[in-house]
Design a protein that fits this description.
Layout: H1 3-25, H2 31-49, H3 52-61, H4 66-125
Helix pairs in contact: 1-2, 2-4, 3-4
């Protein structure tokens, strides 16, 4: 890897760090969601600074083409992100269901109280 490409990769990693922290500061990205992204960026930063690590890891895993190891790790990170987002979506779905049930019960109680008040007002006027 050329020195220019290493510098560009490191700058991109720092840009990603800045973007992640900026989004967390604006509360558009939770800390738990950002954790995997930060780990991925740290991994890319390490590989950008020390490109020989990728060849070493590929050799350990028995992968003959080092970029295939990078693609493998990128897929693992993406799958983990999707998995955690799926968990979050499932939790939000159950919370929405619970809230809709509570709203329905509150509407029913509100209508019941309205009918009682109407009946009481009719009784007072008669």
């Amino acid at each position: 890897m050329s020195l220019f490409l290493q510098i560009v990769a490191v700058l991109i990693c720092f840009g990603m760090f800045f973007g992640l922290f900026h989004e967390m500061k604006k509360k558009r990205l939770s800390e738990s969601s950002a954790l995997l992204w930060l780990l991925g960026v740290i991994g890319l930063l390490v590989l950008s600074c020390f490109p020989g690590i990728l060849n070493w890891v590929a050799g350990l895993l028995g992968i003959w083409w080092a970029p295939a190891a990078l693609i493998f790790f990128a897929l693992v990170v993406i799958i983990l992100i999707i998995f955690f987002h799926t968990i979050s979506i499932s939790q939000l779905e159950s919370q929405v269901l619970e809230l809709s049930m509570q709203v329905a019960l509150l509407k029913d109680q509100n209508e019941e109280m309205s009918h009682k008040l109407t009946d009481m007002n009719k009784g007072e006027t008669a």
